[in-house]
Amino acid sequence: MAKLGVVLMLFSLLTAIPWAQSFTEENWATRLEVQKETVTNLQFYFHDTLSGKNPSAVRVAEATETEKSPTLFGAIMMADDPLTETPDPNSKLLGRAQGLYGSAAQQEMGLIMAMNFGFIDGIYNGSSFSLLGKNSAMHPVREMAIVGGTGLFRLARGYAIAQTHWMDLITGDAIVGYNVTVVH
């Protein structure tokens, strides 16, 4: 049995050598000289509806102590929020913000957001970018990172500035204006 193991090991080494020799410092990766980068500025409104018959965000998990926390610490929400051209919910639909956010702070309303902003209109139809960061929801202005993208936003990086346009403190429903700068 030991002889079989040695034979198999030698065979695997011998068959791997031509493959390993095909890699050199010059050809193991392809280098592409990138053209000039594009900076895109976007403005839209995010409609997060927790109430009513057809909410766009629902609680999917919570900690045992979440309801006792003034910040709902430990609550996790799944969202499929419309993105519109103006604060009016009936204005032109530009896309959807899909992902999750959770209450991650015990001393303030601090949400950790992991969202994909996908667009369905104009030249950005089918393109998306990903947002990741802390959203201090009660602050008038907050900034979050853009960490990637698809389509026209492939290899995106940048930032999003969020400002609450309207919020119902009883239901948690909110309309948030976003100004986003994406480098791609």
TrEMBL record:
The signal peptide stretch is: 1-22
User: What keywords would UniProt list here?
Assistant: Apoplast, Secreted, Signal
- Principal localization reads secreted
Q: Per its UniProt record, what InterPro entries does this chain match? A: Allene_oxi_cyc_Dirigent (IPR044859), Dirigent (IPR004265)
Cellular component GO terms, alphabetical: apoplast
Output the GO biological process annotations, alphabetical, semicolon-separated: phenylpropanoid biosynthetic process
Q: Where in the cell is it found?
A: Secreted, Extracellular space, Apoplast
Indicate the family of this protein: Belongs to the plant dirigent protein family.
Quaternary structure (record): Homodimer.
Q: What does this protein do?
A: Dirigent proteins impart stereoselectivity on the phenoxy radical-coupling reaction, yielding optically active lignans from two molecules of coniferyl alcohol in the biosynthesis of lignans, flavonolignans, and alkaloids and thus plays a central role in plant secondary metabolism.
**PANTHER family per the UniProt record, alphabetical:** NUCLEOPORIN-RELATED (PTHR21495)
Per its record, how is this protein called by name? Answer: Dirigent protein
